Amino acid sequence: MPQLPTDGAAGYALAGVTFRHLPPSVHGAMTSLKDRLGLALRVCSAIAALALAGLPAQPVSAAGGTPRDSLLVLDASGSMWGQIDGVNKIVIAKDVVEALTYELPAQQRLGLVAYGHRRKSDCADIETLAEVGTDREALRRQIRTLTPRGMTPLSASVQHAAEKLDYRRQAATVILVSDGKETCDADPCAVGRALEQNGLDFTVHVIGFDVTVEERKGLQCLAAKTGGQFLAADDAAQLAAALSTVAVPEPPPEPPAAAPATVVLKATVLDGGPLIQSKLDWSMTPADAAAPPDGDGAFAGFAADGVGVAETEVPEGPYRVRATWHGWADGKPRHGEREVQVTAGKTHVFTIPVDLELPVKLDAPATAPEGTVIDIGWQGPDGLNTLLLVTEPDAAPDDAIFFVAPAKVPAASPLKRAPLQMPPRAGRYELRYTLRQPQVVLARQDIEITPQHFSLQAPDTASIASPLDIVWGGPLSKHDLVTIVPAGDARAFDNAHYSARLVPGKPVRLTTPGEAGDYEIRYVMGAAYTTYPGMQYAVKATRPLRVEDVSASVSGPATAEGGSTINVTWTGPDGWDDDWISVVPVGQGHNRDSYVALKRGAGDAPGTVEIRVPAIAGDYEIAYLVNPGRKVIARSPIRIEASTASVQAPATIKAGQEIPVHYRGAGFAGDRVVIAPADTPDGKMWGYTVNYGFAAKPAREADGEGVIPARRTAEPGQYELRYVTGLQHQVLARTPVEITP
């Protein structure tokens, strides 16, 4: 199967420019040139000023005379695919950080740490991408490779950066760029406090992207505890204003009008796709049609052929940037173009998406009810290993909730069509047609998932372990169910107990839990299988249920012989026919060695039941257990006395002869006389080393007799004859026997 060629790791478009000659699906998502360029310039200036404000131009370390070391900690968790003013947060963060590497003084030692960029659900996904003092160009290459994927272990990442900076012995600064709260069970405030207490002169500055009031609390505390600054904004404009206000108290002097601007040009496969690192031709020409001719000393433009990332200096003004890529599979050039504005004395990073000019079309409804399956049509390069999927708007390109593999759908004209499961939760989603390698979106369409009506009717209270009829209402998808779970349970349903699939037109009958307490009855909508969090099952209706205790009683003899059968008198909840009586160690629940199930119908009177008691001596209780749940609701004490037995046989016998045996014992069901090697422990004699001998019959007043067959005595050696109980295999008596040749 042909694959899309790729020259390197993922790259991203810088906020601040307008796309030209792009597919309608991409072009429609772009914001205006002026707004986005202004955002990028303001953010670049502000974050550079923040770093410089936190790192004085000539701070004095313990060694004296050099600027303090610093590490940038960049959030590359999955949430960084979210947007600020229509621009992916990771796009802004990466390009701002790259611009910062040009703005900082050459003597400033800088490094880079990232988290969440390699694995989706790993809180240990923290990596030092560039050690402090790494060459700036190598640092930029690492920044360009980042793709959001996983969790947000921001506390551990800052701790990791501090250790890298040897913060206990030298002054150091960390700049954390994050878009949310800690998701890895750590306390940023506690981490900040510990770093401040243990560090020589350690500071953390935190930049929050699109964080809520609740999310910013931990970030604020982390910065405050170390004497750093916290900057937050709800959108791109507020972000730029906050950074300028807090990090740049006095505007820097304006550069001379003739000072050139530094421009870095990058290209990606479509918007947000992989960075193209070779076979690119660049041109950057003045966009002002009224510019004087070359002969008048005007700047004619910049060009470079057969490269990847390009860097140049140009005068201030508007330009038209064009990228031509010669690396596409069919050998034909592909193009990307954009108009940009550069400012004298500034560093600009521009990323140009290259249009692959692939014919892609989606045909799907604008809305669909939650949890349903829609019919979707498409046209596209299915042979390039593609996926048709539905996902959240801020998800990574390949992060599908549900998907179809287009190549497996038979060809059709003009459009292929297939069913696609919709999410079981209402909200705004995207349908996407994507390449899988590399992961880029070729076409997308918004779809609104609308809510449906669900209902539950049931009593407010019920007894433990009792049948409960529940009337439900809903659209009844294939995997829907009704369940009972503890109130507030984070699970959608209990997949082991208290759940039932739905049958059209019929109420659900569930058995209530065996523990009293507050519960919830839930209607759970089930969708197709997916690993996307929270999307295989969704709770659509709930109803509170109070489960109450019931009473019972049991009584029996005060003592009993181990292994014997006793009569137990009991009373229990009326009409219950599946509860148990069990003889259990004091304070414990069900004992599988001693129990009996109660079987009766509604209206039957309480009565007595026979039960065999354990063979091991000790203090026990006769327990009444409700089922399901096996909760003990009544107990009565009983003392088990060990049964007694004896066994006699000749001291020696020749191999291959029978052994006559005399014994005494209760002869309860399963009691036996066995022969085993003398060194076999009692607890391990039920393997291949034991010969089962014969069953013991009741023999209390007179000896019982039995024979160990000759086939059991074939091997000479030292043996024991043992009287063993049928219940719990307790050895009550033993005698040695030597088998001679």
Choose one word for the global shape: elongated
Give the end-to-end Cα distance, rounded to a whole number of Å: 76 Å
Instruction: Count the beta strands.
Output: 48
Total domain count: 6
| Structural class determined from secondary elements | mainly beta
Which regions contain 5 or more consecutive residues with pLDDT less than 50? 1-64, 243-250
Strand portion: 35-45%
Q: Which fold name fills CATH's third level, the topology of the largest domain?
A: Rossmann fold
Describe the structure.
With 741 residues, this protein is mainly beta. The chain folds into six domains: 36-247, Rossmann fold; 261-354, Sandwich (Immunoglobulin-like); 361-450, Macroglobulin (MG2) domain (Immunoglobulin-like, Sandwich); 455-548, Immunoglobulin-like (Sandwich); 553-641, Immunoglobulin-like, CATH 2.60.40.1930; 645-740, Immunoglobulin-like. Helix content is 13%, strand content 40%. Helix 6 links the parallel strand 7 and strand 8 (202-209). Helix 2 (33-54) crosses helix 3 (89-103), helix 2 packs parallel to helix 8 (236-247) and helix 3 (89-103) packs antiparallel against helix 4 (136-144). The two termini are 76 Å apart. The model is unreliable at 1-64 and 243-250 (pLDDT under 50).
Short overview:
With 741 residues, the chain is mainly β.
Task: Lay out the secondary structure.
Elements: E1 18-20, H1 24-27, H2 33-54, E2 69-75, E3 83-84, E4 87-88, H3 89-103, E5 110-115, E6 126-130, H4 136-144, H5 154-164, E7 172-178, H6 188-198, E8 202-209, H7 213-225, E9 230-233, H8 236-247, E10 261-269, E11 280-286, E12 302-307, E13 310-314, E14 317-325, E15 334-342, E16 347-354, E17 361-363, E18 367-369, E19 373-379, E20 386-391, E21 402-404, E22 416-421, E23 427-436, E24 439-450, E25 455-457, E26 461-463, E27 467-473, E28 481-486, E29 499-501, E30 508-511, E31 517-526, E32 537-548, E33 553-555, E34 559-561, E35 565-571, E36 580-585, E37 595-597, E38 607-612, E39 618-626, E40 631-641, E41 645-648, E42 652-654, E43 659-665, E44 672-677, E45 691-695, E46 699-708, E47 717-724, E48 731-740
Parallel strand pairs: 2-5, 2-7, 7-8, 8-9, 10-16, 18-24, 26-32, 34-40, 42-48
Antiparallel strand pairs: 1-15, 3-4, 5-6, 10-13, 11-12, 11-14, 14-15, 17-19, 19-22, 20-21, 20-23, 23-24, 25-27, 27-30, 28-29, 28-31, 31-32, 33-35, 35-38, 36-37, 36-39, 39-40, 41-43, 43-46, 44-45, 44-47, 47-48
Helix pairs in contact: 2-3, 2-8, 3-4, 5-6, 6-7
